[in-house]
Every structure is written in structure tokens, then in C-alpha cells.
């Protein structure tokens, strides 16, 4: 059993209270280890350390910051398999998926090491020959980064990397369910020589840590990935000190399959979109809309594909889908299925789960499930399920498909499958989502902007867009003789 500490001002330390919390393996509920639980005192220590580091770190040439990050990137690649095993142990996803995520985490560090060197200003023509106008971009300041449990490696570096590349010290608060791979990632940042105070890691009660960070005026930026409900609370609490806020929140992705689609491709891409990480992905397909003339064929192909999915612990051979993160997640999936059945839906395959181990809070699995005869009044068609369930609703026309797809408070990701270029572009432009996968079920990548509209969030992460929210614009007007 491992026991890990907090990382503040370049040092690993216990919580002053001595308190810890348990981290469970979602595959069977076994105890992975104990993690130090920070209180208000440690949060203030981390903020002070970041404040002391800010001026020097922000003043460094971008190339120097990049050199630190390149060392960090190299260490992440060297230790990728070790971090992946930790990730699978505390999060549950298959080891191959975990390794892919760690490599993606390393890619964010590499990308922003380079992107930080391309933060350009502007010279603007003045209205007078006796003036010059310059526009500078400078770091926004100390940043609080709050990351989720479903991608506990890549979300850490997707937030920290652009921030420190821009010159902003970061205080990281990873999810309580998955702190250990964050610990290993930050340990490698330490070994890369990133100066003390530039990165801190705090774990513990979200309310205590979050409220302390949000109340302190020295924190100038909050970047958060998680539920829409929590994101709204962060926005409200950030208003008192007018912090800049980036939010990547919940999704309810529609997956539109038209009658001219390549159905085999649509099914293959859907498997990746829905089964990966047991459906616990913010851009996972939540609602499948299929044109009436091809519904039966698509359902049969999907049923065949789902029946071959191998479930189990992420360390088992050839596993394609691991457990749900905990009992609460399992209950939500079960409630959505039961609600749909009570309102007339029919199960094609799946519709049940099982439990492993002796711990009541973890060890929960749910079989890949297909529901048909689905209607818009079912909860599963309105709320994010975060599990391996595909509800299918038919449509007749393009206009109907768009109406159904856009009928949501969420606007993160959406998918369109058609072999018609004209239809694909037409529908993609009308979908009210920040991300559209056109014949592509896996659109997320380091070089592209990731984020949503409506109640799915504010701002973008990834690509050159991702560093912009960590920069302030300063206008310099110069009078000359």
C-alpha cells in the first residue's frame, strides 16, 4: 500500500492535520493507498509559494521555460508504463488505454513547450506620427487547475502545460479518486528541475481547497474540467474577485447516422466513442439518432459488436472495457436504464451489471447496453449517463435530426455520419456544439481546440488556442518627439 504527500514549494509534505483519505481500485474495491488531505493552511502555503515564484518564472525567456518542459516531456515518456499501471490501478481503464493517455499527457507538455515560444505581440499603426502603439501578451498570473478522475493524466498536463509555458504558476487539485498518477507526473516535473512554487499539488476536500483558492485574490485564473453543476458554482464564487475562468463541463453528445452512411464505419467509431473508458468520457456518445430506413441494420451490427466486448480488470489480457469508477456511477447508469424501460424502451443487449470484491463503494461493472424504442422524455435522452449505454431514436429527415440533436442545454461534442460531403458540411455547420466529428468518432487531439458552448463550458484547451486564456493583453501607447 502506498502513501503519498502533498507537493508545495518544491517539497513533498504531510498535511498539517495528519489526515489522509483512501484511494480504491475500482476493479475490485481493494485499497490502492492513502493520500494526504490538505486543509486551508496548505492551500495558503501553496498560494504564497506561487506568488513568490511568479515574477521570476514569468520573466524567464520562453525558451528557458521550454527547456524545463522538454526535460519533463522526456521523463514522462521514459516512465510512461509505470504511470499507466498506476492509472489503471486507481481509475480502472484497460492498461493499453492508460498507456495511450499517458503518452497524450506527454504530448501536451511537448506541444506547449513549443507553443510558449510563439506568444507574439503586435505593432499597430498609430493615428499620429508622434505615437507608437504596441500590444504585449503577458501571463495572467497564479492559476488554480482542478482536474477530473476520468482522464487523470492527460487532463493534468493539458491544464498545467499551457499555463507554465505562458509564465503562470499553477496549483493543481486532482480528483480524490485518482491522485496517484498526478503525484507521479508532478514528481517528474520536479525531477526536470521546474523551480519551486511553479507547480504545487493539493489533494483533499473539494470544498475546503476550492473555497480557499476561489476566495484568495492572488489566484487570477481558474481552469476546471468536471460537471456543469460544479462549474456553475465555481463561476459564481470566482465572480467576487473577478477571476478568469475556463470551464470544460458536461456533455450529451448526439451521434447522427444518415441512410447514406458507411454503417460499418459508424459502428466501429461508435465503439470507440462509447466503450472507451466504459463510456466515462465527456464527449462520449449519449444519444444515437439513426435514419429510419437503416435503423434495423445498424442496430443488428451494433448488437454484434457489443456482444464481443470483453470486460474486466484493466490488467487482464485483451480487456476492452473496465469498471465504472464507483457505486455512485453504477447507480446512475442503472437508474437511466430503468427509467427508459419504465417509459417504453426495449433492451437489445446488456441492461445489467455485476459487482466484484467485498467493498461496497467500488468494483462495479455494467455490460454494454443498447436501448431501442427510445423517446425524448426519457432521462437518458436529457442527462449525461457516463456509462456504456446507447439509447437509439429514429428520425426521418435531416431537419428532424438537427432538431433532436440541438435540443439540449449541452453543447460539447457531436457526431455526423454520412457519405454526402454537402450534407456533412451542412449538418456540421448547424449543430450547436463546440466539436463536431464528421465520420470521426475520436476528434480529440493535442493540436486542436477542445471545448464546448452553452452549458458545456467556456474557453478552449489544445492547440495554439489553449495558451491564449493564460495570457493578458497589454496595450502600450508611446509618445515620441
Automatic annotation (TrEMBL):
Pfam family, one: Aldedh
GO biological process assignments: gamma-aminobutyric acid catabolic process
Listed GO MF terms: succinate-semialdehyde dehydrogenase (NAD+) activity
InterPro entries linked: Ald_DH/histidinol_DH (IPR016161), Ald_DH_C (IPR016163), Ald_DH_N (IPR016162), Aldehyde_DH_dom (IPR015590), Aldehyde_DH_Superfamily (IPR050740)
Keywords noted in UniProt: Oxidoreductase
Record domain Aldehyde dehydrogenase: where: 12-475
Classification via PANTHER family: SUCCINATE-SEMIALDEHYDE DEHYDROGENASE, MITOCHONDRIAL (PTHR43353)
Record-stated family: Belongs to the aldehyde dehydrogenase family.
Protein name (Swiss-Prot/TrEMBL): Succinate semialdehyde dehydrogenase
Amino acid at each position: 500500500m502506498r502513501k503519498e504527500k502533498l507537493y508545495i514549494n518544491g517539497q513533498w509534505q504531510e498535511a498539517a492535520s495528519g489526515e489522509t483519505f483512501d484511494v480504491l481500485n475500482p476493479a475490485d474495491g481493494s485499497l490502492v493507498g492513502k493520500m494526504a488531505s490538505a486543509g486551508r493552511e496548505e492551500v495558503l502555503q501553496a498560494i504564497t509559494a506561487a506568488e513568490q515564484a511568479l515574477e521570476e518564472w514569468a520573466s524567464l525567456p520562453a525558451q528557458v521555460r521550454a527547456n524545463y518542459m522538454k526535460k519533463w516531456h522526456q521523463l514522462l515518456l521514459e516512465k510512461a508504463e509505470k504511470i499507466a499501471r498506476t492509472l489503471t490501478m486507481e481509475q480502472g481503464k484497460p492498461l493499453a488505454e492508460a498507456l495511450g493517455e499517458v503518452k497524450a499527457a506527454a504530448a501536451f507538455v511537448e506541444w506547449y513547450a513549443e507553443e510558449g515560444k510563439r506568444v507574439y505581440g503586435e505593432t499597430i499603426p498609430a493615428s499620429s506620427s508622434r505615437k507608437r502603439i504596441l500590444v504585449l501578451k503577458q501571463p495572467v498570473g497564479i492559476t488554480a487547475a482542478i482536474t477530473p478522475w476520468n482522464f487523470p493524466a492527460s487532463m493534468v498536463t493539458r491544464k498545467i502545460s499551457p499555463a507554465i509555458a505562458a509564465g503562470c504558476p499553477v496549483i493543481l487539485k486532482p480528483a480524490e479518486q485518482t491522485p496517484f498518477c498526478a503525484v507521479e507526473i508532478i514528481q517528474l516535473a520536479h525531477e526536470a528541475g521546474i523551480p519551486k512554487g511553479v507547480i504545487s499539488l493539493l489533494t483533499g476536500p473539494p470544498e475546503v481547497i476550492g473555497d480557499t483558492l476561489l476566495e484568495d485574490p492572488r489566484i487570477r485564473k481558474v481552469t476546471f474540467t468536471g460537471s456543469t453543476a460544479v462549474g456553475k458554482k465555481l463561476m459564481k464564487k470566482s465572480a467576487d474577485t473577478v477571476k478568469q475562468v475556463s470551464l470544460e463541463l458536461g456533455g450529451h453528445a448526439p451521434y447522427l447516422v444518415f441512410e447514406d452512411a458507411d454503417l460499418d464505419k459508424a459502428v466501429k467509431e461508435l465503439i470507440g466513442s462509447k466503450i472507451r473508458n466504459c463510456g466515462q468520457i465527456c464527449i462520449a456518445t449519449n444519444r444515437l439518432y439513426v435514419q429510419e430506413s437503416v435503423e434495423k441494420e445498424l442496430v443488428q451490427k451494433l448488437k454484434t459488436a457489443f456482444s464481443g466486448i470483453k470486460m474486466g480488470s484493466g490488467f487482464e489480457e485483451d480487456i476492452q472495457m473496465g469498471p465504472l469508477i464507483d457505486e455512485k456511477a453504477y447507480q446512475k447508469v442503472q437508474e437511466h436504464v430503468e427509467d427508459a424501460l419504465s417509459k417504453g424502451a426495449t433492451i437489445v443487449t446488456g441492461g445489467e451489471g455485476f459487482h466484484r470484491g467485498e467493498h461496497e463503494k467500488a468494483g462495479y461493472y455494467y455490460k454494454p447496453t443498447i436501448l431501442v424504442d427510445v423517446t425524448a422524455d426519457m432521462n437518458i435522452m436529457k442527462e449525461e449517463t457516463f456509462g456504456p449505454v446507447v439509447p437509439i431514436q429514429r428520425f426521418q429527415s435531416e431537419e428532424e435530426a438537427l432538431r433532436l440533436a440541438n435540443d439540449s442545454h449541452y453543447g460539447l461534442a457531436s457526431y455526423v455520419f454520412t457519405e454526402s460531403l454537402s450534407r456533412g458540411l451542412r449538418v456540421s455547420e448547424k449543430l450547436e456544439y463546440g466539436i463536431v466529428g464528421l465520420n470521426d468518432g475520436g476528434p480529440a487531439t493535442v493540436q486542436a481546440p477542445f471545448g464546448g458552448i452553452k452549458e458545456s463550458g467556456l474557453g478552449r484547451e489544445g492547440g495554439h488556442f489553449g495558451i491564449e486564456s493564460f495570457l493578458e493583453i497589454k496595450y502600450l501607447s508611446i509618445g515620441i518627439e
